[in-house]
């Protein structure tokens, strides 16, 4: 009878370890996914000064538009949490949308080779940001689900695991991709 009790305790202990390690793996995956968003956003923010420099000579009268883009970029670089990054990302998207709307009225700019290459880079980056957000939200959903289902919810509460926020853009206009038409 004592052997059965020992076997049951060992099996329960192994289940506990397996669930705990699964929660840790999920938490690490969420952190990695968040870092991937950061990498793509940083890439986008690095493109913005090049974009501004390329258009400065063409858009002499549109200084406030360029300043809005730079201000949004600088604020986004300082964002730390998921919610701060989502809000800052929305501001950058909004500023870039305004920038590209005004840039449409400059035919020489639309034909500029640097501008065309930056446009392609930005379009590619926007796609990568979108995929990174999706991967992050998928990872967070899987992790948060593990925190709520039985019996891993017990282990999660004992281990101090806390739910994570999804990457959500609040403003409907900010959910749209940057329009890069020239």
Q: Can you put this structure into words, describing what you see?
A:
It is rod-shaped and about 85 Å long. It is an all-alpha fold and 182 residues long. It has helices spanning 2-56, 63-77, 82-103, 107-111, 113-148, 152-159. 77% of the residues lie in helices and 0% in strands. α1 packs antiparallel against α2 (63-77), α1 packs across α6 and α2 (63-77) packs antiparallel against α3. It has a single domain (20-175), classed as de novo design (two linked rop proteins).
CATH architecture assignment: Up-down Bundle
Sheet of most strands:
none
Shape: rod-shaped
Mean pLDDT: 83
Overall radius of gyration: 23 Å
CATH superfamily: LemA-like domain
**Total domain count:** 1
Number of strands: 0
Strand percentage lies at under 5%
- The CATH C-level class name: Mainly Alpha
Separation of the first and last Cα atoms: 79 Å
Primary descriptors:
single chain, 182 residues, mainly alpha, de novo design (two linked rop proteins), 6 helices
Question: How is this structure best summarized?
Answer:
With 182 residues, this protein is mostly helical. Helices cover 77% and strands 0% of the residues. The chain is rod-shaped.
Secondary-structure map:
Layout: H1 2-56, H2 63-77, H3 82-103, H4 107-111, H5 113-148, H6 152-159
Helix pairs in contact: 1-2, 1-5, 1-6, 2-3
